[in-house]
Structures are given as C-alpha cells and as structure tokens.
Specification:
It is built from 39 helices and no strands. By secondary structure, the chain is an all-alpha fold.
Length: about 700
C-alpha cells in the first residue's frame, strides 16, 4: 500500500485521483486482512500505523471542507475502520485516539439526531466503536471512550425511526450496547483494581435502573414494533409474513433480532426491576384501545425473555388472567388490532413451554386447538401461530399423551384443513411435519381410530400436489409430495400391519412409491424424493404380513434404483432382505435374476462397507432359502469365491464373504467345488483363507459355521 499512501499524502493530488486511491487502498486492505499467516499479519501490523496517519489526515481535512465530500469521507472512514480492526496495535496512540475522539465530539456530522448527511457517517462511527471495543477493550475503557459511545448509541436509539434509519445502522447501534453488556474482558479476574473501578463506575452510571428502563422502552416501542410494510404483509399475505419473521431470526442485519438479544442481555443486569417494568408496560398497553402493535412488541419481548423470566413470572397465573381471555375472544378476522395480539399470544405459549407444568397443559390444548378451525373469527396468522405452539407442546419432553387424547382428532383435522388452505409449500411442509410429530409422540391406539381419515388426507394431499403440477408449480408440488411421503412413512412405522392392511392407505402408498422411483417423471426421481420414497417402501414391506401383488410388483424397480450408481445400495439391500423375510420363495422365483445381477454388479465395485452389506444380504438369502438360493445367486457367489481366494479386498470383507461361502458349503457343496474348478484354485487355498480370518468374522454364528 505504500504507493497509495504516497499519492494520498501529496498535497497536489487531485480529488478524483485521491478518491480512486482510497478505493484501491480499501480493496488492498481487505485482501491483506483476509490473510491468516503470521508473516502476513506481522507485515500488515507494521505498515498499519503510517497508513492510518495519512488516511486520518485526509479524513480530518475532508470534514472541514464545505460542502462536505461525503463519498470521500466515508471511503476514508472505511479504510480507517479496516486498519483499526486488523493493523493497529495501540488504541491510545495518536492519531487513533484523535479519530475516536472526533467521532464523539463532532456531533454535527456523527450524531444520529443532528447528522445532515444520512446514516453513513454515524453508521461507520458505530462500526469504529465496535472494532475498538472488540480489539482493545481495556484501552477503550482507559481512554474514556466506553461511556461516550454508550451515550452515543443510546441517544441514537432514543431517536430511532425506521423510515430514516437504515437497518444496518440500527443493528450496529444495538450490537455495540449488547457487546458492552456481554463483554467477557471486563471481569474482576482480568482487570486491574483501577480499571475494574472505572468499569464498575461506568456500568452503574449508564445501566442504572432508570437508564435501563428507558433503553428497554426505546427498544420495545421503536425497534420491536411491526413496521408499516409488515402490517401490510400481515394483512395481504399471511404466509409471507410468517416466513419473513422466521428468516429474520437468522439475519444478522435485522434490527429486531439484534434488539431482542439486547433485551435478554439487559435482563441479566437488572432482571427483577426490568421484568416488573416490562410487565407493567404490557399491562398498560393492553388497556389502551389503539396500541395493538405496542402490545405485540411487549409480548414479543416477553417471549424472547421466557427463560430469564422463569422466576419472575408465574406462567399459569399469567395465562389464566391475560392470555386465555385474549385467545378465547371472538373477533372478526379482518379486525387487525385484535388478531395481531391474538397471534402473538398464541406464539407466547410455545415460547413458555418450559414453564408450562403438567397441570396447566390441558387448558393450553383446550384454548389452542379450537383456533385451528376455519371460521371467520381467526386470521390465518393466528391459526398458524397456534399450530406452532401446539407443535412445541407436543414435541416437548413434558408432554403427556393422556392429556391430549380428546384433542387428537380435532387437532389432526385442523392441521390438514390448513394444509389445503395454505399456498406456500414451506408452510404446508411445516404443517405435515407437525402431523408426523403427533403420530410419533402419541400411542398408536390413540391415533388408530383416525387411520381412515389419515388415508383420505393422503389422497387429498396427492390431489393438491397434482393440481400444483398441472398449474406449472413443480417445485411446490415436489415439496408437498415429499412431505406426504414422509407422513405416510411415519404412519406405517408406528401403526405397522394395521396401516399396511388398510385398503384406502394402500391405494395411495404404492402409487406414491412408484412415482418417487420414476426418474422419467417430471416430479419424481429427484434425489430427495427418491430417498424418501425408498424409506416409505421399506416401511411398507416391514409393516406388511403377506406379500400382496401390488407390493410384489414394486420389486421390479429394485435394479433400476442402482442402475447408474450405488448411492442407494444400503436401502436396496434392506429392501431385498425385507422381501426375503416377507415372501422368500415367490420373491426369488420372480425377481431372482435381477437380484443376482444387482449383487454381482456391487461386488468389487463398492467400498468395504458396501461389500460387507452385500455379504450379509447373500447370507440371509442362503439361510432363508437353502435349497434354491444357491442356484439363483451363482454369479455373485462365484465372484465372492474369487475375492476370497485372491485376497484382493480388506481382511474384514474377505472374512465376511468367506463366512457366506461356508454356509454355501454346508448347503450345496457341489456348487463350491464347481467354483474351485472354474477358478483353478484348490479348496486348501479357500480353507487357509478362512482359518486366517476366522477371528475377524463379526457374527458368532458365522464363526461357528466356518470352524465346523
């Protein structure tokens, strides 16, 4: 960067050239900062201070020009922040100290209230404070910058307005205060007595009860409230609103997410006082008729602090006195002010699941399940929020199925009704996931009376998927089909033969499997669909008591699953074993040739774990059908004999294959002699291979057969 520094230091450098030099310097510093080798870091640290001095001079001069050259100042400030983050070794030396001091004193340009040039300068000032606090927490404290920047951020948050503040700027303000609250460098074990005294004084003055209350009010009333765009989305596209709210939780540049983290941090400092203050704010907001978004913001803050409030708030009492009346209130679907509070109250129940003891849970179910119905009193956001709360309660370790018995049918009906009314594939997938959780968490006897209803719902889902496909929405169609396949798999896994023998369910399951395996279809055969389809196929066979013609016909797809590769060999072998146990003679007589070809292709072409699985499958076939399987599997058995006698595979693999051939020797010794003649390898070579590896055979029965 020295050449760039020389250009910037020269007084006669034209402004456009200096601007371009700053741009190149910023890109150069970003590249150098990304390098992690010690030598590169040392070189940047050595070059950093002189570069900082030159850029700081140009930045300070730019602040004095009239009119202010905003682009040049911002670019210089970005370079200074990069150097502060990666190339400065001491915060209190000039000109670093001067840079930070200017950010605090030049309120005309850097204060959020008085800035005349938008958020750019205050935003990068806050980033500079974050970098200094992160890299030099003790020097930041000693230099007196900690209280100054805390007040800087507090004043900005007190003036926060979504229409004039960028999201990035709001995030940086909140993130700085949160970083101070959570800073691990400020503790008694690492600070000197003098520094500890400074820190305690700053924290007591700034985070007083009054200041914490004001900060909490600013966050709740200004940052956590729904924006006008969100209100419009809530009304016009409820599913999009929920999707965006979920996505915001993972967005580091979302002011609300950052504010929620800060509220939790503040609770750790003044828990009892702030808990009482937040509940008081909530009660006051609930009494006002025009404060729906404020009540929503208060409920949001309470929900995020559910763990911190566990000893400050009796959830059972609060539910009975405040939440239950809100949720049971009959309101018009179009009445936004009541519906938004109702939706947030439903979500709160899921957030307080750890505080919901056994005694209160029947009342929670009795309140939430009726909200799933499609009448004019509940907005779609309310109904979907209720589903999520129920999902959390049912999937919780404290769930007791006896308390949920009377709500099973209405809850399942409400969920499937919502699936048909929602249009977003992700929303539908989430609803089907909850239906699957109910099937998993409830005893089979509790959901068995609804098996026919579940089968009909599978049919409705497939019809809905076909309609989406016909409309050209293949992505949504595929997602819905995958969710349907997973749900059908869980029904078969948990209801076993009762589900497998249900004619209505069978009429949908077999075509569903065929569609999932069909790689020529526009929506079937995709990797995620194929994986789920194989799981459903395995579940169907394991749940069946007899090999019916529709199930037997599915076996024609076995070889095609591994036609191009062996990615699904494990599932294919499990299917072969399941078919063998279900109807061995019929299965092998019909599909023996394709099974033999598949096993023959796998031997020598897959890795060790695949070969071990193939050995187990052949061993099972020989065990179940000792009289006929050797003739059917002659090709893969011959290849196994070659692998054992030639010692070209891993010892464990050779031991497993040798154990399978030992079983063949018992059942059909002439076939083994035939292999010996065809390969020209004496039986003594085979016997020696067995004796060398008998201790590696991982099944006791295999060892016994080999030794005998």
């Amino acid at each position: 960067p020295q050449t760039l520094v020389a250009i910037l230091a020269a007084q006669q450098t034209p402004a456009p050239v200096a601007q371009y030099a700053l741009l190149v310097l910023k890109a150069t510093l970003k590249e150098l900062a990304a390098r992690r080798l010690v030598a590169d870091r040392a070189a940047l640290a050595e070059a950093g201070p002189p570069i900082f001095q030159v850029v700081h001079l140009r930045w300070a001069a730019g602040l004095q020009t009239q009119p202010v050259a905003l682009d040049s100042i911002v670019l210089a400030q970005k370079c200074l922040n990069l150097l502060l983050n990666h190339a400065i070794g001491n915060l209190l030396h000039e000109p670093v100290h001067s840079y930070l001091a200017t950010l605090l004193t030049d309120s005309d340009k850097f204060s959020a209230r008085a800035a005349r040039h938008g958020n750019a300068l205050p935003y990068h000032a806050t980033k500079a404070a974050e970098a200094a606090l992160s890299r030099f927490p003790v020097e930041f404290l000693r230099g007196g910058f900690l209280p100054g920047f805390l007040h800087f951020c507090f004043d900005a948050l007190d003036a926060y307005d979504p229409s004039s503040f960028s999201d990035k700027y709001a995030c940086r303000l909140v993130a700085f205060v949160h970083a101070v609250v959570e800073c691990t460098a400020y503790d008694a074990e690492t600070l000197s007595q003098e520094d500890l005294g400074r820190y305690v004084e700053v924290m007591q003055r700034f985070f007083s009860e009054q200041r914490c209350a004001l900060l909490l009010e600013s966050l709740v009333t200004r940052v956590l409230r729904l924006s006008q765009d969100e209100i419009a989305s809530w009304t016009e596209d409820p599913e999009e609103f929920i999707r965006e709210e979920d996505a915001a939780e993972w967005n580091a540049e979302n002011p609300r997410t950052a504010a929620e983290r800060l509220v939790i941090g503040l609770m750790s400092k003044r828990r009892s006082f702030l808990a009482a203050h937040l509940l008081s704010m909530t009660g006051e907001a609930c009494r006002r008729a025009d404060s729906a978004t404020l009540v929503d913001a208060c409920f949001r803050a309470i929900g995020r602090c559910a763990y911190e409030l566990r000893n400050e708030l009796s959830f059972s009492t609060w539910f009975n006195e405040q939440l239950a009346p809100i949720l049971k209130e009959v309101t018009n679907e179009r009445e936004f002010s009541r519906q938004v509070i109702k939706a947030r109250a439903a979500k709160l129940i899921g957030q307080f699941v750890l505080a919901a003891d056994t005694a209160i849970r029947p009342a929670l179910y009795q309140t939430l399940v009726p909200l799933l119905t499609a009448d004019s009193t509940n907005h779609l956001v309310v109904r979907l929020s209720s589903v999520r709360a129920l999902h959390t309660l049912v999937d919780d370790l404290g769930f007791e199925h006896e308390q949920f018995a009377e709500f099973t049918g209405p809850c399942l009906a409400g969920v499937f009704l919502l699936v048909g009314q929602c249009r977003d594939a992700d929303t539908q997938q989430g609803l089907l996931t909850f239906a699957g959780v109910m099937i998993e968490r409830l005893p089979a006897m509790q959901t068995r009376p609804f098996l026919s209803d579940l089968a009909n719902q599978i049919g409705n889902l497939l019809t809905l998927a076909k309609n989406l496909d016909d409309a050209g929405d293949r992505d949504s169609s595929s997602v819905l089909r995958c969710g349907t396949v997973v749900l059908a798999t869980k029904i078969l896994d948990f209801h076993g033969s009762v589900a497998a023998s249900n004619p209505e369910l069978n009429s949908y399951v077999v075509p569903l499997i065929e569609h999932a395996l069909d790689k020529t279809s526009r929506t079937g055969g995709a990797i995620y669909m194929l994986d789920d389809g194989l799981d459903l196929w395995i579940a169907l066979i394991r749940a069946s008591e007899v090999l019916t013609q529709p199930i037997a016909s599915l076996a024609s797809h076995l070889q095609s699953v591994c036609h191009f590769d062996f990615d699904h060999l494990k599932e294919t072998l499990r299917l072969i074993e399941s078919y063998t146990l279900l109807g061995a003679q019929e299965f092998l007589s019909t599909f023996g040739a394709s099974i033999s070809s598949l096993l023959d292709d796998a031997l020598g072409n897959v890795r060790d774990r695949g070969l071990l699985a193939v050995a187990d499958t052949m061993d099972l076939l020989l065990t179940v059908l000792p009289d006929t399987s050797a003739n059917v599997l002659v090709s893969p058995l011959r290849k196994a004999y070659r692998l054992v006698t030639q010692n070209t595979e891993n010892d464990f693999v050779v031991a497993a294959l040798a154990g399978t051939l030992c079983r063949l020797a018992f059942q059909d010794f002439p076939t083994l002699e035939k292999f010996q003649r065809e390969t020209g390898t004496g039986l003594e070579v085979f016997a020696e291979s067995i004796l060398e590896r008998v201790d590696l055979m991982y099944l006791t029965i295999r060892k016994k057969v080999a030794l005998f």
